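>> received
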Amino acid sequence: MRFLAAIFLLMMTIGGVDGSAGWVNNITVNEYGMSWNYNETFSGPDSIIFRTNIDKGFGDNNSFVNVWEVTLAEKELRKEFRTSIEKELDVRINNETQGIYLVEVDAVLSPEIIGKTHIFDLIVNKYITTYRFDKSILDAGSIWFMGQSNTPVTIVMPQGVDVTNISGIDNVTINITDHTEVSGYFKEITKDRGEITLDISRNASFIKKEVNATNDTNATNVNLSSQDEGKKSMFETLSWIRDASIVAVGLVIILLIYIFKIRKK
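>> returned
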């Protein structure tokens, strides 16, 4: 994602605001998809310029940002982000974009924007993009990302994927647990562009958990059979108790009749 290209319409003549300084990338790759979350931060004088540009560009320029102005800005940002990504996807698998689909683009501007424009404050905006992959990332040989140069990035890979080589990241840190996380900064290619490539391979010891329908069916049948046997045994026991009770009652009646006759004589 090229930050300056996507944010340009919103900020218009923002000039001295260094938006990239507060731009953080968090990428989570799943087997058949990916989410890319961005946090954008403005503070001090930059927060005033940001509010003022929203008030001028999407509102009534009265030095106060209303909810409806923020809503319009979010709508425009979503459209600009989508247009920017569709012109050039910011993720590739095996150096190709075929089989990668942009599913959703969202923009959530900070509620701190609402109110008077000329107030120093901390503004944190959030942007989210999600993608779907046709093929499993477990079978891929590389994955490539394009982002704003010199911005921090964390890439979380799914279980079963080994990262064998990394390029395009400054100050890289690798954390390996049951999955691999790669952190650092997009290395600058141009002022507004950085590119990261992870060479990857399937972990030979990784076993993908799959649901075995046959085994589940057999287990279900066994459980049902056991339940049926239990019910049958219970019914047989109750039937025996009932029959025994009838016999006992009959014997008691016969005994009482016999005793009665003896006393009568």
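>> Residues 1-6, 12-21 have pLDDT under 50 and may be disordered.
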